Amino acid sequence: MTLLIKDKDIVVPGEILAKGMDHLPAQGTSRENENIIALQLGLANINGRLIKVIALSGKYVPKFGDMVIGKIINITFSSWIVDVGYAYEANLSMKEATSDFIERGADLSQYFDYGDIITTKIVNVNKQKAIDLTMKGPGLRKLKGGRIIQVTPSKVPRIIGKQGSMISIVKEATNCQIIVGQNGRVWIQGEDPKKVRLAEEAIRKIDKESHKDGLTDEISRSLKEKKK
Amino acid sequence: MKYTKRFDKRKFDQLREMEAKVGVVKRADGSALFRIGKTIAIAAVYGPRALHPSHLRNPEKGILRCNYNMMSFSGSGERIRPGPSRRSKEINLIIQKALLPVLDLSPFPNTVVDIFIELTQTDSGTRCAGITAAALALADSGLPMTDLVASVSVGTVGDKVVVDLTKEEEDFEGGATDIPVAITPRNGKITLLQLDGNITKEDLKKALELAKKTCKEIHTLQVKALKEKYGGDKK
Amino acid sequence: MIGINKQYVKSLLKEQIRQDGRKPDEFREIKIEYNVSEKSADGSAKVKLGDTEVIAGVKLEVGEPFPDNPDKGTIIVNSELLPLASPDFELGPPSIGSIELSRVVDRALRESKILDFKKLCIKEGEKVWLVFIDIYPINNAGNLFDACFLAALAALKSTRFPKYDEKNERIIYEERTSKKLPLEKNTPIECTVIKVGDTFLVDPTNEEEEVMDARLTIGILEDKKICAMQKGGDNSLSIEEILKMVDIAAKKIDHIRKAI
Asked: Nearest CA to CA, how far is C107 from chain B (Å)?
């Protein structure tokens, strides 16, 4: 009947978060007899009766509907093979890549070539984590130039912020275009390489300190200072 | 033979001084250092990642691979020749079995999670130190786990049941039994058990109870190290 | 993610800054810790170059000298690119990368004559000391060449002989003496310079190494003479470029030496 932790506490795997039946286990937790235990290192989140653990680390696990940043690593007769940061590659078929009619045997590299970076969307993931992608949707395109950094995928919501509040601060302060993929890849482009570096630094700081309170204000303040 | 006082003056149920730190290998997905006395283990986790060769892949869940290695200069005698030995291969296996019961790799079919454990300095209890470090590194990497795993060796030296034997105690002329044990702290379940020596069933029971008690101390340190990475416990 | 980042690194370098904010000729912080494996190794050290971390240990053994050098001991340098240290390193027999690393460290130590091999002789033609130096990267965040060399040198400096029981012809490792290795004064230091586009960088990060055109590792003695070199990377260098890289390295040597 008791809650053993507070909201935003750091919890570790196996830690008992609550005893009794008053609370319900959600993401990152499970019930073991009358205990709710944490299954991951993370931040406890209590929402009414629900208890969940928000991971502070971990690799990307592909989900249906995720917008991700990928790299073309191979071209077959009828599709592109894309690295999206999971253990295995994803597949982008001709049908999902373009509405153009492509003739049999045409050179697919005129659409997407080896090494091209794309924003793409996951339309299918099966149990064995075979992944199908699409380029049909708003904002899905080839990215030209810029820089890509990797952040912890579970922190993507924090980097974006509520209604995009966090990432807007970084964009405005650095005059950079920034796209955050659910796979933790962040694309940054700007005219001034020094500002790109500033944006990278800010994003890495959010990634590292995502568990801290008042981070939005701190990022905003430190970007303003560096701009001077 | 009577063993009245421990060589290093510890109490019979007292662990050597310990140290634990998480996130020591920046390039790894998870990592930790664990020191007990003069034995130092560093563990790093990579994965889930692609598994080659592909015939080892399991479409139901990811697999766990462990690799334990003593650095060439880390032994007490001559230099250790580099590369795997029969001893290290067996240790790889028992470490894997010690960690698997708490690890859920079903969300990662066909992949592998690699754990690399390196010993930089040794004074007995290396496999136990390796397991304790590896459990920390796994938790740090964010993989789903039902509990941590803490490990220690217990046993008898002469007529006494003791915890955390040193090299000197393992070689005690009056006879010694070495029992490396790994335990899931919350439920007190045993995931590693080896024994070499000569012991009665009664002493074995005492030794395992002692392991359960002392692994709680190791676990407390593990929890502290994990929380410290994120600024410590606010409570 | 190579390719897309190369342009970025180059555009930053046009402004004479690097991704981590350093100037092209600036080293990361160098930290050296001695006797990190004092219980086990006869000498040991840990070197940190920013996030790059390397540990080296020395074990002494007694063996027969080579027939062509009956009054000389020797050093045996070995390094292993542990898969612990980077997602790019794999298990298995020594990779070509680790062999190159060992040999480059070996060359500068050997050719600098920092260790007078004659002083390692116990009995001519029969018994000499063999100095095994094993080097392991713990975390590869770039510039393993310089970090491994520094770790090997620091481990040698911290080495003390174990007791040798001549009668029974065995080493008693448990009893280390206070006698240090006979190291000479003219200490070599290795400094690696890489070329990215038109810019030369010292102490590269792993990301900078991924986009480099060429690499030159230079071993320089206290009297500024060069004792070892190794060129790496896929592209060529002109003589002018090489001399410029030697100048850059020579300027950094004193800074690195201060750390040891």
From this structure: 21
Residue B234 has pLDDT above 70, yes or no: no
In sequence order, which residues have a C-beta less than 8 Å from that of residue A133 and are 6 or more positions away?
A70, A82, A84, A90, A91, A92, A96, A120, A121, A122, A123
- Which tokens hold the place of A191? 């005219």
Query: Residue B73: which of C40, C86, C87 has the nearest Cβ?
Result: C40
Shortest CB distance from A194 goes to which of C4, C5, C15? C15
| pLDDT 10s digits, A76-126 | 999 999 999 999 999 999 999 988 888 888 889 999 999 999 999 999 999
Record the pTM.
Answer: 0.95
Please report the domains of chain A, with CATH numbers, ordered by start residue. Answer: 10-55 (2.40.50.100), 67-143 (2.40.50.140), 147-227 (3.30.1370.10)
B230 touches chain A (CB under 8 A): yes
Q: Delineate the domains of chain C, giving CATH numbers in brackets.
A: 7-259 (3.30.230.70)
Q: What is the ipTM of this complex?
A: 0.94
| Angle, CA A102 vertex, CA A97 and CA A107 arms, to 5° | 90
Q: How far is CA B40 from CA B35, B118, B165, B191, in A?
A: 4, 8, 15, 22
Query: How far is the alpha carbon of A99 from chain B, nearest alpha carbon, in Å?
Result: 33
User: A183 touching B, CB under 8 A?
Assistant: no
Span B152-186, pLDDT tens digits: 999 999 999 999 999 999 999 999 999 999 999 99
Listed in order, strand segments (DSSP E) in chain C are 30-34, 43-49, 52-63, 74-79, 121-123, 127-139, 160-165, 170-180, 189-196, 199-202, 214-220, 226-232
Residue of chain C whose alpha carbon sits nearest to that of A69: C1
Nearest Cβ partner for B142 among A40, A88, A128: A40
Domains and CATH numbers, chain B: 18-224 (3.30.230.70)
Chains within contact range of chain C (3+ C-beta pairs < 8 Å): A, B
List all residues of chain B from 19 to 38 with a beta carbon under 8 Å from chain C.
Answer: 24-28, 38
